[in-house]
Amino acid sequence: MLIYENPPTPAIANLLSLMRCILYFCSMQSNQQLLVDHLLEQLNLDNLAVPPQTYLKLISQQNNLVKIDDIIAYINALGMELQQTDAINELVEKIEDDTNILIHKLKFITVADRPKVWTLNQIQPVEVNHTAFLNESIQIAGGIPVTTAHEADKIILINSDETAFAAIPDLLNIPGVAASKAVELDQVFVITKPHFAQVPGYDYLTELEALAEILQPKYFVYGHEGKHWLQFQLK
User: Domains along the chain?
Assistant: First the structure.
């Protein structure tokens, strides 16, 4: 029997691949539980026991939560699994109504009046957030997501870590930021709400409202400034 002091390269590669799969699955389970527990709390059902198989059934759906219809379908699936359709229907109705009000207010806003938005999760090193879910939310809230800093009319840092504030001046060292309209017009924001846009569907309405306040302040004031987001001057 051959014994390797150091595993051959293919074995190491296979092990790393397996570890990535395990970490990804654990992350999905963690996000899944976070989302489900939060929804149950909103429904005053937080004492309800959720069978493990329910989490497993919903995991496949969580990867595809991008649009409001996806969020609604997920919540309805949870209600059916837990046989709590009446309570779920009330939550679904509120999400649909409040989102439709927001969309209707912005219905006649022209493209020229929709700011281009560059979002990032951290500054050092730069980590741009361009997830499909966040991009969709930005568009609903009246903005246009962009992938480069120099295009930005508004820059949003999504980071609830207190150390993030100390790094904000370093934004100016990122190519394109200093010359952007966002810096010129003091349109730099930090969203401090934990889990923001990390778990699609978690506090969906609050996240939309916060984005709408930042992107279209003439039309929306929900009271999230100072609580979930702050504005910074870099000049």
Answer: 29-105 (no CATH), 111-232 (3.40.50.1980)
Q: Which residues contact 156 (CB under 8 A, 6 or more apart)?
A: 117, 118, 119, 120, 189, 190, 191, 214
Query: Hey, CA dihedral for 2, 5, 10, 14, is it positive or negative?
Result: positive
Distant-in-sequence, close-in-space partners of 227: CB < 8 Å, separation ≥ 6: none
Closest CA to 220 of 230, 211, 229: 211
Residue indicated by tokens 């150091």: 6
Contact 217, 150 (CB under 8 A): no
0.85 surpassed by pTM: no
pLDDT digits (tens, 9 = 90+) for 151-209: 999 999 999 888 888 889 999 999 999 999 999 999 999 999 998 999 999 999 999 99
